[in-house]
Amino acid sequence: MKMPGARIVLECLKREGVDVMFGLPGGAVLPIYDALYDFEGLRHILVRQEAAAGHAAEGYARTTGRVGVCLVTSGPAATNLVTALQDAYMDSIPIVAFTGQVPTHLIGNDAFQEADNCGITRPCTKHNFLVKDGKDLGPIIREAFHLAATGRPGPVHIDLPKDILVKEAELVWPQRVQMRSYNPNYDGHPGQIKKAARLLARAERPVLYVGGGVIIADADAELRELAELTQTPVTTTLMGLGAFPSAHPLSLEMLGMHGTYYANMAVHHSDVLVAVGARFDDRVTGRVEAFAPHAQIVHIDIDPSSISKNIKVDVPIVGDCRRVLRALIEAVREELGHDVPASVREGRRQWADRIGEWREKFPLRYEWSDDVIKPQYVIQELSNLTQGEAFLVTGVGQHQMWAAQYYKFRHPRRWCTSGGLGTMGYGLPTAMGVQAGQPGRLVVNVDGDGSFAMNSQELATCFTEGLPVKTIIINNSGHGMVRQWQRIIYKERYCAIDLPGVPDWVKLAEAYGCVGLRVSKPAEVVPALEKMLSTPAPVVLDVCVDKDECVFPMVPAGGANTEMILAPPTREVRDRAARSQTGF
Amino acid sequence: MSQNGNEPRKHTIAVLVENKFGVLSRVAGLFSARGYNIESLSVGETLDATVSRMTIVVHGDEFVIEQVMKQLHKLIDVIKVSDLTDDDHVERELMLIRINAEPQHRAEILRTADIFRAKVVDVTPLSFTLEATGDEEKLEALIELLRPMGIQELVRTGKVAIARGPKTRARKTVEPPKRPRVPDDPRVVGFAD
Question: Does some domain include residue A584?
Answer without folding.
Answer: no
